Amino acid sequence: GDSVTQMEGPVTLSEEAFLTINCTYTATGYPSLFWYVQYPGEGLQLLLKATKADDKGSNKGFEATYRKETTSFHLEKGSVQVSDSAVYFCALSAPDFGNEKLTFGTGTRLTIIP
Amino acid sequence: ETGVTQSPTHLIKTRGQQVTLRCSSQSGHNTVSWYQQALGQGPQFIFQYYREEENGRGNFPPRFSGLQFPNYSSELNVNALELDDSALYLCASSLGTPRSYEQYFGPGTRLTVT
Predict the structure, then answer these.
(1) pLDDT at A103
(2) Backbone φ/ψ region at B108: left (φ over 0), alpha (ψ -120 to 50), beta
(3) Is-contact B112 B11, C-beta < 8 A?
(4) Percent of chain B with pLDDT over 70
(5) What distance in Å separates residue B105's CA from the closest CA in chain A?
(6) Given an 8 Å threshold on Cβ–Cβ distance, is A101 in contact with B45?
(7) Are B37 and B86 a contacting pair, CB within 8 Å?
(8) Does A40 score more than 70 pLDDT?
């Protein structure tokens, strides 16, 4: 079945550091890929998405590129802020189910220290 | 534009009881998905409703059931509660067709089973 594997946390960085959170996936066909963010006590917010190979999703300084050859969708940000502290989830949506079921990774907790 | 809302925010139930959780989808959305997020884990797909019909189900037993109403709001019912049902239950809405690729999540209902 479909699965998502993402970097174990927690990750702690200093403000303005470079961020990478690794994500790889297993899926039949060509899934759509997503990064969601969950702030403390809140639901999930879509951070960015990519729907086909070589697409780059970007939002709020975060970027991720859909790499079919390595089945990866790593999240990057050049300079993190304290407000980026949250849990980040990589997810995929398989194209052929007839529905939009999301399969999530286990999440990576990110803490940014001033 | 009103976002996805869920009620109640928190709930405490005893093992063996039944519970109903409610979700109002974002305006204009006709598809609702439910997810269970155990502590420290990624959300797991329970099922999805599209125009009042179940449109896919994850690996959850039949005591997890749902409904979608003509206004596209939805309920999740869980019978014979078990301790392992303690989790954050997330509802997400989307435009089911054509595929929107984006699901918008509510803040969740925190269920504790004692």
Answers:
(1) 93
(2) left
(3) yes
(4) 94
(5) 6
(6) yes
(7) no
(8) yes
The pair of structure tokens assigned to A39 is 């702030």
Predicted confidence (pLDDT) at residue B98 exceeds the cutoff of 60: no
Cβ(A98)–Cβ(A6) below 8 Å: no
From residue B24, alpha-carbon distances to A2, B45, B76 in Å are: 29, 18, 12
Strands A11-14 and A56-59, bridge-based pairing = unpaired
pLDDT in tens, A1-28: 889 999 888 999 999 999 999 999 999 8
Average pLDDT over residues B54-69: 94
Instruction: Inspect the interface and report whether the beta carbons of A46 and B107 lie closer than 8 Å.
Output: no
Residues of B within an 8 Å Cβ radius of A: 4, 31, 33, 35, 40-45, 48, 50, 55-56, 58, 90, 92, 94, 96, 99-108
Q: How many CB atoms lie within 10 A of CB B96?
A: 21
What residues in B contact A49, CB-CB < 8 Å? 101-102
User: Chain A residues with CB inside 8 Å of B102's CB?
Assistant: 46, 49
d(CA B113, nearest CA chain A) in Å: 19
CB-CB neighbours of A7 under 10 Å? 18
Assess contact for B89 and B81: CB atoms under 8 A: no
Interface test with B, best of A59, A100, A109 (most B CBs within 10 A): A100
Structure tokens at B105: 């999540």
Closest CA to A108 of A27, A14, A20: A20
